[in-house]
Amino acid sequence: MPRTADRQHTGRQRNEEARRAILDAAVHQFAERPAAEVTVATIAAEAGVGRQTIYRWWPTKFAILLEAMTELGRAVVAVPDSGSLAADLEAFVTATFSAVKEPTISLLRVVMGEAQRDPQVHRLMVEFTGRRRAVLREVLERAEARGEPLGPGGADLLVDQVFGVLWYRILLGNGPLTPSAARELAEALLAQTRALPWPASERTPRPGKC
Amino acid sequence: MPRTADRQHTGRQRNEEARRAILDAAVHQFAERPAAEVTVATIAAEAGVGRQTIYRWWPTKFAILLEAMTELGRAVVAVPDSGSLAADLEAFVTATFSAVKEPTISLLRVVMGEAQRDPQVHRLMVEFTGRRRAVLREVLERAEARGEPLGPGGADLLVDQVFGVLWYRILLGNGPLTPSAARELAEALLAQTRALPWPASERTPRPGKC
DNA sequence: AATTTGTCGAGACTTGATGTCTCGATAAAT
DNA sequence: ATTTATCGAGACATCAAGTCTCGACAAATT
């Protein structure tokens, strides 16, 4: 009863060029057209591959998109660690906001929309967003370990506030996603962590910035 | 060239029982099953009507759901006005959170998901959420007019923080929507408003601010 | 009462996307 | 040289959306 790890992979190996072409075609089409007009057939045609080559590796067209977005997301994975919560939080929020623009924002909307339709895509989406959540959580918990307070809700609430505002603006388009909007959010959340439980006659001065 | 208003409706009239049965069946199915498993055929079967009866009155199954939710949404929540931002904000957030539970939460997820796919549904969704935004904005601006500060981001950011956290948790299910979670969020946002803005000299003061 | 008009439930039908299966060709490990 | 798994390609079944038609039925009109 040989386990799969007992022998090497034999036979023809996976074509990396085809994989890249499929990912690129999916990103291109989901960014340009309404999601309803993107089909496995159109992606296969643009990538110059057979449909079966797609079905062999991805269960749905949205799984292709999620894999592509995961690769694109590796660029912003850097964890800020300057020793100060103020600087780290602003760096994280600014970097995250600046990464969310066309064409990425269209892709995010498509995937989040589909996640509400398909439980499997929803699970993939929880995992996808969880990676960014983990980065922010690390920043917050490191600050807490240093002795910096996180305010009434702790790290859990702060994480949901950052990504809540971000996703809310992505999905409904009601508010800005500019760098200044990012700074504004970071500043507001920092104020939240620093505020005293009652109107303060004295406040702690902000470290390192004015 | 007779206008439509020139004569009365002749012929058999629309069956109100069928309309109600269709709306109820749509709500029931969208609340119970994944949206992908809900079809016009299943709604028609549960309602005991022909498919053509549905297509005659609604363009898509989501139009049925939107009409049903519009009827459900007629319960207008009163605008809290106690004279204190702390009490009003907690009342609003608690009431809003407590209204978002099964089966409503499933319907909200379905409609928000479809809004990312259909621009027309998206517009309706912006309008739908805008009504609740307006209530919170009124609470915040009244507090500001009283002289209570709203913190670095002002009313715009606070509104997005409340509904951002709410929708983020609805869509991804990562955090709680309990009454205690609502109180926690309200408390955190209040802490944020109590922080003093330090570069106050560079800022144009808002009217009514201390 | 008879006629006209529009809705009713039901089913046949077209269209298009999904997903499976098979085929011969090809490339890598044995 | 053989084995094994991928490749592009196409046939095929399945399913939901949407259109069209049918006889039955109900309300307004004549």
TrEMBL record, chains A, B:
Residues 16-76 form the HTH tetR-type domain. The keyword DNA-binding applies. GO terms for molecular function: DNA-binding transcription factor activity; transcription cis-regulatory region binding. Pfam families: TetR_C_11, TetR_N. Keywords: DNA-binding, Transcription, Transcription regulation. Coiled coil: none annotated. Residues 39-58 bind DNA. This is TetR family transcriptional regulator.
